RNA sequence: GCGGUUAUGGUGAAGUGGUUAACACACCGGAUUGUGGUUCCGGCAUGCGUGGGUUCGAUCCCCACUAACCGCCCCA
């Protein structure tokens, strides 16, 4: 039996790779525009990093990590997300000591989660993410959201919905937590098993439950918005004001609860048109305690991550095409043994002169060689055979209009460069 | 991790318990000793996801496994 690709992974074939290049180029351009610098961190890290960073109670850590021991008996994990690594690097290289703050950074790379694959969910997937470390200014919250929107719009996505919430600071969260427990505890038996477990661990997540979505207590549950203390409320108000003044539409959703433990204050998602159940294109939020949690000084931070796989699906649903028109300047058709010997030499000359050029390698007949030239979208075909070699001239055919010229070998590159 | 659907060539797909597994597209060749995108003709699955079972005989029936898709959970 032939070996198959691991479950939940996929190959990007040549016909699709150019889309990825375009998307990655767009991401880099937008980051340059917003003055975010690339940082590259390893694809695996100490398992501890994610346990402490992402949070022990999260689904990611509890059941989705690709963990292994290396030959030195170290516990390592293929990264399930990017923020923990970036914060680790920020602390490890003492980037908090750099004069330039906040450190505005981005990454594009593979992430790994052991999940049941379906459209828009893979075991290896690719995230583009940005992190701004060191600033607690509400305008950076707005900036990071706008960066993501700019990126999507640049690629032609229109059907986007920004959803916002605030989880408040630790004091606000604690107050809300108590209120939630008090609200649900008397009737928790009417809820699903998961919710019963959530009650003590993370009652916030009950609000996210799809099973008990219609339970009357859901509608009357205490909203985090009502439990924000003054500082938290004030901060959130400033973020919203900036977005308003920039003309950014958003929807407030007090039940927007992100799955990672490190979030506080502003959280957000961008939803898009997508196939099936998955519509979250991008998610992120503020994580003010994370740097100190991972051994650095008390430092605020905020970031987002988005999936390129889901972006591609959304582009598809919206009918946005990233198709380009790859073409070849020139294709050499060789007829006969002598010409076949000459072809690679001539081809090399064209290439060295900067022309995108190719020839047949399948011993095809003339007709077949022309077909290949057509598939490669060659603008010109250079035909050489015995007759041409005798007079040191090639027949050059313009594939668009079918016209032909005789061109001396010596002037071939000049001729083609002028025509292209 | 749970539930449902599916699995035939490079692709999209018909199909039957019994000798040669439709059709279309793509590809290769010929009509046109040396010219593509049109047309006509020809070629192209020792094989029907993998392993086992039932049977005189299985691509078709049964079981297991694997994978894909959809839903749940959760997320990007």
Automatic annotation (TrEMBL):
User: In what residue span(s) does the Aminoacyl-transfer RNA synthetases class-II family profile domain sit?
Assistant: 1-315
For this UniProt entry, what is the primary localization, expressed as one broad class? cytoplasm
Compartment(s) where it occurs, according to its Swiss-Prot or TrEMBL record: Cytoplasm
Q: Which Gene3D superfamilies match?
A: Anticodon-binding domain, Bira Bifunctional Protein, Domain 2
- Recorded GO MF terms: histidine-tRNA ligase activity
Q: Name the chemical reaction catalysed here.
A: tRNA(His) + L-histidine + ATP = L-histidyl-tRNA(His) + AMP + diphosphate + H(+)
Return the EC number: 6.1.1.21
One Pfam family per UniProt: tRNA-synt_His
What is known about its subunit structure?
A: Homodimer.
The family line of this record is:
Belongs to the class-II aminoacyl-tRNA synthetase family.
Q: What class of enzyme is it?
A: ligase
Alphabetized UniProt keyword annotations: Aminoacyl-tRNA synthetase, ATP-binding, Cytoplasm, Ligase, Nucleotide-binding, Protein biosynthesis
Record's protein name: Histidine--tRNA ligase
Top-level taxon = Bacteria
């Amino acid at each position: 039996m032939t070996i198959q690709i691991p479950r939940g992974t996929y190959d990007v074939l040549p016909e699709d790779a150019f889309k990825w290049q375009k998307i990655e180029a767009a991401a880099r351009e937008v980051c340059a525009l917003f003055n975010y610098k690339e940082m590259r961190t390893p694809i695996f890290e100490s398992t501890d990093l994610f346990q402490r960073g992402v949070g022990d109670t999260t689904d990611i850590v509890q059941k989705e990590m690709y963990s292994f021991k290396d030959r030195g008996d170290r516990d390592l994990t293929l990264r399930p997300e990017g923020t923990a690594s970036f914060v680790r690097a920020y602390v490890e290289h003492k980037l908090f000591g750099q004069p330039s703050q906040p450190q505005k950074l981005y990454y594009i790379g593979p992430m790994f989660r052991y999940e049941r694959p379906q459209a828009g969910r893979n075991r290896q997937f690719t995230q583009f993410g940005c992190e701004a470390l060191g600033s607690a200014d509400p305008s950076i919250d707005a900036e990071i959201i706008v960066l993501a929107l700019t990126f999507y719009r640049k690629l032609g996505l229109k059907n986007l919905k920004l959803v916002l919430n605030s989880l408040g600071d630790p004091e606000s969260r604690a107050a809300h937590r108590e209120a939630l427990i008090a609200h649900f505890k008397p009737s928790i038996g009417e809820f699903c098993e998961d919710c019963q477990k959530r009650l003590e661990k993370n009652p916030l997540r009950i609000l996210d439950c799809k099973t008990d979505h219609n339970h009357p207590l859901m509608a009357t549950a205490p909203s985090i918005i009502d439990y924000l203390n003054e500082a938290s409320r004030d901060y959130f108000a400033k973020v919203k004001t900036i977005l308003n003044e920039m003309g950014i539409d958003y929807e407030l959703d007090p039940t927007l609860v992100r799955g990672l433990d490190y979030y506080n204050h502003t959280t957000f998602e961008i939803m898009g048109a997508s196939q099936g159940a998955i519509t979250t294109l991008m998610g992120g939020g503020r994580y003010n305690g994370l740097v100190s949690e991972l051994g650095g000084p008390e430092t605020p931070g905020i970031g987002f991550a988005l999936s390129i796989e889901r972006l591609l699906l959304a582009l598809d649903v919206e009918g946005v095409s990233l198709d380009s028109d790859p073409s070849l300047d020139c294709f050499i058709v060789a007829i006969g043994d002598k010409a076949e010997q000459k072809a690679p030499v001539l081809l090399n000359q064209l290439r060295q002169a900067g022309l995108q050029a190719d020839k047949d390698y399948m011993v095809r007949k003339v007709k077949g060689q022309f077909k290949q030239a057509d598939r490669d979208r060659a603008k010109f075909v250079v035909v050489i055979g015995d007759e041409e070699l005798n007079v040191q001239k090639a027949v050059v055919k313009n594939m668009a209009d079918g016209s032909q010229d005789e061109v001396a070998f010596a002037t071939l590159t000049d001729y083609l460069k002028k025509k292209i």
